[in-house]
Amino acid sequence: MASGTDISGRTGISVEEFGFLSGGPGRAAEVAVVRLLEAGLLRISREGVVSAVSATSQGASTPLEAYALGAARTGRMLGELIKSTAGSSALDGLKQRLVDRGFLVSPGRRKAWGFVRFLCVVAAIGAIVAVGLVDLNPGIAIAVVVLALVFRWFAGRMRRPVRRAGRREERRVVVMSNDRVGVVAQHGLTGRIGNFPNMYYVWEMLGIAPSAGATLRRRKPVRNNTSDGGTMYGSSCNSCSSCSSGCGSSSSCGSSSDSSSSSSCSSGSSCGSSCGGGGGGD
Amino acid sequence: MGVIDRLGVGIGWRAEIDLTVERLPDVDFVEVVAENLHVEHLPESILVLRERGVPVLPHAVSLSLGSADPVDVHRVEHLGSVAEALGAPLVSDHVCFVRAGGLDSGHLMPVPRTRDALDVLVANVRTAQANLPVPLALENIAALLEWPDGELTEGQFLADLVERTDCYLLIDVANLHANARNLGTDPNRFLDEIPLERLAYVHVAGGVETDGVYHDTHAHAVRPEVLELLGELRSRVDPPGVLLERDDNYPTDTELANEMAAIRAVLARHG
User: What are phi and psi of A225, to 5 degrees?
Assistant: First the structure.
């Protein structure tokens, strides 16, 4: 349950771990969701609604997959599901394993280096102020500022989430082109693959419809900052033509018995059927 | 019957399974919940199906034709506009009410089977028909209660409704089974009493029995008893169409295809 699938060309690191090292928590969540889609445990609609195939968590091979499968039980937009999976407690275990193996910097250590960066700024500003207030030799002040900036840069490098060992491990991985989940881990759903000029998005390679792909919004990548990866997810419902006036609007929901469809309206964008549930059946 | 000569075997289109519906073999027609559609922004999947020539029938849940209040013409017009946008040969709703006194029940509530209630229903159906561009079919519901002092059986009630409004019938055999199990009604008598020549199509759905009560969940597999009722209906009439409804806990594509195949098998066996 804990290790996941070893990826093509490399053993000892799971595809989720590789995804995390390559692109942060969001990438690991993408890997979990795509693995479930590929296994037929999740289905995705043309509009990007991801729902569990029958209400069972059987088939999930990692805690992250189990979370995604449970979260999709009522139907979630693709981007929203990945975002929620990336922020789930199930991801903490994955992260901790990477810390324990020396691939990631621990949160405490990152915090400490962040504080060092703050102190460098304080030292630099203090030196400049001291020139005016206590007649500090400008040469000394300049030296302090330069040293502070250099040390701040160094602290920034030390604060990067992926340690050298993690980057080395990531580079060792070889992903075969037919390893679809591995390709997602390496490039992300919004990554582009292929050869110029015939490049395409990874989500296109997976056969995800454009309107579903549109729920994934590209964000400016943060260099080596795997705290949240390079892709931002949200329920940008820009193509949800099925967003309903019926569901969610109590005035129009006369619904079927226990058609249980109320649950499927949770995303507000995928109201496949009537809302409510209860008394009579249609 | 003219308006809908032959629909075949179909499945309820739901946003969650849109690609599944597109992929399934031998889907002759689909049904959409009309309240979930905006005419200006029809789902791409629906457009794809229409391009393939698959009939798409709007099914409403909110007209509340059994309400004592007059029918909301705006809702009827929306239903009509969806039908026109889809090129649908007919639309449907239920013999029920879903609101009263400004409150929504959130459920399909059974109508008292009295002559007074029938008069109200007939008036609302006629108003709806006058504002619809296509014929209207009305569906029997699954009820967990019956109002006291009923003067007509459900079959007689629907027969009178058809006679006075010339509407079509959409018969849900799962609801028939639910009422038989929960209320002790006789499905055979129901089938004897309704005008089968006005049958537009048939709904088949799954459910589950818990503590002696059958729940028409649309989230479980179709039970053999429901298929038996479909066979009983088929032995009396060749329905223009039969549609599988599934609204939640969607199974694999294969399981849905198997359920549709089971429906076809029943129709063939009792034909």
Answer: -100, 100
Residue A270's pLDDT is what? 31
pLDDT tens by residue, B177-193: 999 999 999 999 999 99
Q: Does A259 reside within a domain?
A: no
> B91 - beta bridge partners?
B136
- Domain span holding position A116: 107-159
- Distance from the A282 Cα atom to the nearest Cα atom in chain B, whole angstroms: 5
Q: Report the DSSP beta bridge partners of residue A104.
A: A162
ipTM of the complex, rounded to two decimals: 0.80
pLDDT at A260 over 90: no
Contacts of A259 in chain B (CB under 8 A): 216-219, 247-248
CA distance between the termini of chain B? 18
Residues A190 and A96 in one domain: yes
What mean pLDDT do residues B2-13 have? Answer: 86
Structural contact between residues B203 and B170, judged by C-beta atoms closer than 8 angstroms = yes
Tell me the domains of chain B and their CATH numbers: 8-269 (3.20.20.150)
Between CA B200 and CA A80 the distance in angstroms is 40
Kindly determine whether residue A246 and residue B142, on different chains, have CB atoms separated by under 8 Å: no
Q: Which residue has the tokens 């399981």?
A: B255
Q: Cis check for the bond before A197: say yes or no (omega within 30 of 0).
A: yes
Q: Are residues A115 and A153 in the same domain?
A: yes
What are the φ and ψ backbone dihedral angles of A49, each rounded to 5 degrees?
A: -80, 120
Could you tell me the pTM of the whole model?
0.78
